[in-house]
Design goal:
Keywords: Hydrolase, Protein phosphatase. The protein has 167 residues and is α/β, with parallel strands linked by helices. 42% of the residues lie in helices and 13% in strands.
């Protein structure tokens, strides 16, 4: 079984097969799994799970979920937990979500966040549509930071984006 790819101490990325290994999740102390697929299964393990139901097509809307995913990962880290973001192959959708987290909560530029996730998991390749959505997200985060200089980016979610359904 391929191990999880560690992006930060509290964030990992993988494919669906690895994410559904209860032994691996327990060994890696994962407490939150974000499934960025329409159909891939959830792990049969005692972890909190959430689904972002998007396909890996450039025209699919991942953008409206980026804030909620980034905030859920951040909240889990603040509780001392570890998040795993996965999609079918662990290449495009899950990578885009990890990049969004780094941009929002570690104030990284898009290019730097992509490099960090790629260093952890060299096979990542967000599709062109998701890259464009990440660029839009970077622009939005910059606007938020510029308009609220006394607040951190983590305290200003976009109220237009739907919350992440966690169960």
């Amino acid at each position: 079984m391929q191990p999880l790819s560690q992006v930060t101490n509290s964030l990992a990325i993988s494919n669906a097969r690895a994410a559904c290994s209860p032994d691996l999740l327990q060994r890696e102390a994962v407490t939150l799994c974000i499934n960025v697929t329409r159909r891939q299964p959830f792990p049969d393990a005692p972890v909190t799970v959430a689904r972002v139901a998007v396909s890996d097509r450039p025209e699919d809307d991942l953008y409206s979920h980026l804030d909620a995913c980034a905030d859920a990962i951040h909240a889990e880290a603040l509780k001392g937990g570890r998040s795993l973001v996965y999609c079918k192959n662990g290449r495009s959708r899950s990578a885009a979500v990890c990049v969004a987290y780094l941009m929002k909560h570690q104030q990284m530029a898009l290019a730097d966040a992509l490099k960090k996730v790629k260093a952890a998991r060299p096979v990542i390749a967000p599709n062109p549509g998701f890259l464009a959505q990440l660029q839009r997200y970077e622009d939005e985060l910059r606007t938020r930071r510029d308009s609220q200089p006394s607040q951190t980016s983590s305290s200003s979610p976009n109220p237009e984006n739907p919350p992440l359904t966690i169960r």
